[in-house]
UniProtKB/TrEMBL annotation:
The gene is GALNS. Glycans are attached at residues 234, 454. The keyword Membrane does not apply. Keywords: Calcium, Disulfide bond, Glycoprotein, Hydrolase, Lysosome, Metal-binding, Signal. It is an enzyme of class 3 (hydrolase). Its main location: other. It comes from Delphinapterus leucas. The modification 3-oxoalanine (Cys) is found at residue 109. Residues 61-385 form the Sulfatase N-terminal domain. Its cofactor is Ca(2+). This is N-acetylgalactosamine-6-sulfatase. The keyword Glycoprotein applies.
Length: 578
């Protein structure tokens, strides 16, 4: 049973979402007055199944998570984007609550999405690599790792509360059949296991498949064209129709639904359909944003049309910061923040975030709660009247008290890159234990995670350790992380006094999951038989990954030997063959 204070919280919270009880159901209500509200609607469902009629049975709210890909904090009008081209999202914010201090759990797609759906840091779920120190990793086609069966995903848990779940768009938690979204709680899927990279030659590498449920219905650049020259693709329109259709069907069936709308038009190569191309002041990236904004407007409009807006919780955010490597043509804006995707500076991890639930979340609110993408897991369970799993560490907070009562909860934000805790924020203070952007090798080849931004000793191209004397920034006065506090100041000591115990506690209790994303591990590579073939895509990928890291870890040593054996890397002469 939940502790009494939590149940009490739920009683107050749940007074709202339920439609008025009438007729035969009312009898049950008296008996249930003393019952934990968390289980209230489930009992009523049981009663209604026993013949009390579906219409009178209260339903928990629908949950709609709008997850953008590589959209930055600064990309929406409401966040100050100067072109002001997102009227629908701006209105959503005006009708709901804006979270300016909302964070993802990792600056890259796959781990961030794993964190949302498990409520756990990727270091716990295994969505990281030990190929190198502080390396980001995702699920390229060659990898056979994915979301472990032992992880409990949000849609699996929501099933207990009668929800039907659909994911539209990018999954990114593994390619192999055992990682299919329908094996992890989703009832429906339309989309792809990966980014829309390509086109590939279909010999060494096929184009990325697109699925409807279990069936592969085509591939990007083939049945689902993306014109790289003009930027034209109809995918956002297709994803929009999938969402509208699902919402209508669930509403007609009187079933609570969870829709995870994980679209990807703002991930390079960015795209838009013809009516939106060329319409933005910001170029092609802006065209993609405009089409998304228009689609969000249509989704919210449908909820109102069907009279389910007050029974549908909607949250808008992004999986990681804008990809400045693709900017300005194919990347977005991180507003005043430093660097972008792939980094643990604010630009890589702070996300646009809007909560919307008319009649429940008061309009025009700004919450300074430090929020996390992992909170969407815990908050969604709370909306469904469910408790988070107790047999594992959960990092997400229930944000309902914040959204409904304006409550603020002191909580840290952990910034990981792969296996390494890079930084921690508590309150206004952020301490960096490691700084790194990318390697000099990569940087000299033109890969820049922080174009136009060089903060000496901060945006470093070698991995710099600061665990003894962290670099500390006050994010209120210095959101751009440009002026580290003087280590001689009392403010610095005070900040560390707040942060150090939180870090110690976190690290002492941490049990890392088995790493799933080691690209150079033969056991997890798809074409391990071919690993000895020079030029095999996975070997090339593996070796490039190694080249890009500065680490000297044992794992990397083994991976390096594998690459050397495959003839792609001569030991002791890094970079010679690449
Ligand atoms: C998008 O759809 C329109 C209308 O059906 C069609 O004319 C166009 O060729 C499609 N574009 C792509 C890139 O698929
Ligand atoms: C950034 O500035 C520092 C100090 O001026 C300099 O040493 C470093 O090379 C610069 N980094 C880049 C990537 O230009
Ligand atoms: Ca992304």
């Amino acid at each position: 049973m939940a502790p009494p204070h939590r149940q009490a919280g739920r009683v107050a919270r749940f007074a709202g979402p339920f439609p008025p009880l009438r007729g035969s159901v009312a009898l049950g209500v008296v008996a249930m007055a003393a019952v934990a509200a968390a289980t209230r609607w489930r009992l009523l469902l049981v009663l209604s199944a026993a013949g009390l009629g579906v219409t009178g049975a209260p339903q928990p709210p629908n949950i709609l998570l709008l997850l953008m890909d590589d959209m930055g904090w600064g990309d929406l009008g409401v966040y100050g984007e100067p072109s002001r081209e997102t009227p629908n999202l701006d209105r959503m914010a005006a009708e709901g609550m804006l979270f300016p201090n909302f964070y993802t759990a990792n600056p890259l797609c796959s781990p961030s999405r794993a964190a949302l759906l498990t409520g756990r840091l990727p270091i716990r779920s295994g969505f990281y690599t030990t190929n190198g120190h502080a390396r980001n990793a995702y699920t390229p086609q060659e990898i056979v790792g994915g979301i472990p069966d032992s992880e409990l995903l949000l849609p699996e848990l929501l099933k207990e509360a009668g929800y039907t779940s659909k994911i539209v768009g990018k999954w990114h938690l593994g390619h192999r059949p055992q990682f299919h979204p329908l094996k992890h709680g989703f009832d429906e899927w339309f989309g792809s296991p990966n980014c829309h990279f390509g086109p590939y030659d279909n010999k060494a590498r096929p184009n990325i498949p697109v699925y409807r449920d279990w069936e592969m219905v085509g591939r990007f650049y083939e049945e689902f064209p993306i014109n790289l020259k003009t930027g034209e693709a109809n995918l956002t329109q297709i994803y929009l129709q999938e969402a509208l259709d699902f919402i209508k069907r669930q509403q007609a069936a009187h079933r609570p639904f969870f829709l995870h709308w994980a679209i990807d038009a703002t991930h390079a190569p960015v795209y838009a359909s013809r009516p939106f191309l060329g319409t933005s002041q910001r170029g092609r990236y802006g065209d993609a944003v405009r089409e998304i904004d228009d689609s969000v407007g249509k989704i919210l409009h449908l909820l109102r049309d069907l009279s389910i807006a007050e029974n549908t919780f909607v949250f808008f955010t992004s999986d990681n910061g804008a990809a400045l490597i693709s900017a300005p043509r194919q990347g977005g804006s991180n507003g005043p923040f430093l660097c972008g995707k792939q980094t643990t500076f604010e630009g890589g991890m702070r996300e646009p975030a809007i909560a919307w639930w008319p009649g429940h979340i008061p309009a025009s609110q700004v919450s300074h709660q430090l929020g996390s993408i992992m909170d969407l897991f815990t908050t969604s369970l709370s909306l469904a009247g469910l408790e988070p799993p107790r047999d594992r560490a959960i990092d997400g907070l229930d944000l309902l008290p914040t959204m409904l009562q304006g409550r603020l909860t002191d909580r840290p934000v952990f910034y990981y890159r792969g296996n390494t805790l890079m930084a921690v924020t508590r309150g206004q203070y952020k301490a960096h234990f490691w700084t790194w952007t990318n390697s000099w090798e990569e940087f000299r080849q033109g890969v820049d995670f922080c174009p136009g931004q060089n903060v000496s000793g901060v945006t470093t191209h070698s991995q710099e350790e600061h665990t003894k004397l962290p670099l500390v920034f006050h994010l209120g006065r210095d959101p751009g992380e440009r002026f580290p506090l003087s280590i001689a100041s009392t403010e610095y000591l005070d900040a560390l006094r707040q942060i150090t115990p939180v870090v110690r506690q976190h690290q002492e209790a941490l049990v890392p999951g088995q790493p799933q994303l080691n690209v150079c591990n033969r056991a997890v590579m798809a074409d391990s038989q071919q690993l000895h073939h020079r030029g095999s895509p996975s070997v090339l990928f593996c070796c490039r990954e190694i080249m890009a890291t500065q680490s000297k870890s044992a794992h990397e040593g083994a991976a390096r030997r594998a690459c050397a054996e495959a003839g792609q890397l001569s030991l002791g002469h890094r970079g010679r063959h690449l």
